[in-house]
Amino acid sequence: PTDASPLSLRALATCGLALGLSSLLRQLHATSSLLRTLVGRRVEVPVRVARIAERVGVGDVVDVVADERAFSFCYWFRRPRICLSTGLVSVLADDELTAVLLHERYHQRQRDPLRVVVARYLAAGLYVVPVVDELASFYALQKEIAADDAAVRVIGVAPLARALCALLPSAPDDLGLLVPVTGLSVTEARIDRLTAGVEVPLRLTPASVWLSAGALAGAFVLAAMRVGTSGAFESLPSIVAVPGLLVSPA
User: Fold this and answer.
1) Least CB-packed of 10, 119, 210, 231 within 10 Å?
2) Residue 161 in contact with residue 191, Cβ under 8 Å?
3) Three-state DSSP class for 127?
4) CA 91, CA 72: separation in Å to the nearest integer?
5) Dihedral of CA 88/90/96/99: which sign?
6) For 157-170, what is each residue's pLDDT tens digit?
7) Contact 110/149 with Cβ under 8 angstroms?
């Protein structure tokens, strides 16, 4: 009789890769629509913003868009740029705006929009291991914390904390949900860390841990039994074979 395991494994892996690609394309489309809308409202960079941006070292990569909401984000992959809203510029003092630009400068120089979208793509592809999605979210939060630290090293805690507190009531959540856009997401956890030194721990939900453990255990069993694998695949060690069973249709 024909062993259905190879077909099942390949179907599962192909679905995972298709889900990751579909998620990536949806995010890219949503981001593209957002950026087209915002670029259409781009205005001349105010003198105050240009002066501060030059001092920070990002004068040639800053865009300002007309929007009453207060937000900033870093976007694009190969040559990231920084976008500020007129609403943000109007509510922040010079030192607070400097802190925001220092935060975004970290994202821009680290090419974080690309890093985060790759992490999200891998999480979507590994949908049978749900803990990976939580780890990707934690990674994105850690990038925000690293950007905070980069700003604090230059200008201190107070200006950035005041900027986050000023943005907390009005920052739009929809910008932070777009993966290829690394926005200045305002969370109480980040404010608590800045003001009280409370670290943000990694918290994994029990359900995702158990489901992920089950998926990995199943992959280890299949790898040990050499189920549905080619001769070349059988020669691989488990540390390579198990991820292959989870994500590779080959």
Assistant:
1) 231
2) yes
3) coil
4) 13
5) positive
6) 999 989 888 777 66
7) no
